[in-house]
TrEMBL record:
The gene is rps24e. One of its GO terms (molecular function) is structural constituent of ribosome. It comes from Halorubrum saccharovorum. PANTHER family: 40S RIBOSOMAL PROTEIN S24. InterPro entries: Nucleotide-bd_a/b_plait_sf, Ribosomal_eS24, Ribosomal_eS24_CS, Ribosomal_uL23/eL15/eS24_sf. Belongs to the eukaryotic ribosomal protein eS24 family. This is Small ribosomal subunit protein eS24. One of its GO terms (biological process) is translation. The keyword Acetylation does not apply. The keyword Ribosomal protein applies. Keywords: Ribonucleoprotein, Ribosomal protein. It comes from the Archaea.
Amino acid sequence: MDVDIISEEENPMLHRTDIRFETTHEEATPSRLSVRDSLAAKLDKASEEVVVHELDTKFGMRKTIGYAKVYDSAEDALDVEQEYMLERNKIGGEGDADAEEA
């Protein structure tokens, strides 16, 4: 999967960068976690610092447009992001602890 960054906007008040990106893929729409990991690798950041907010694939197309927030640290993401978005991106302590116990 190829990830191309369309635009970046710095947000120093919240210690993050807002990013619009485009991915090209061969199969079905990629999962949120695989996009997050690919974007983190491209930006040389840890996966816990990247929160993917939206993925939009037009029917029959092999391109997905997305929006993500890249934080300076994982702690900044935990402080700012809403709980449901952290759960979707598998970031945080409580969700991970429950998964390990099960």
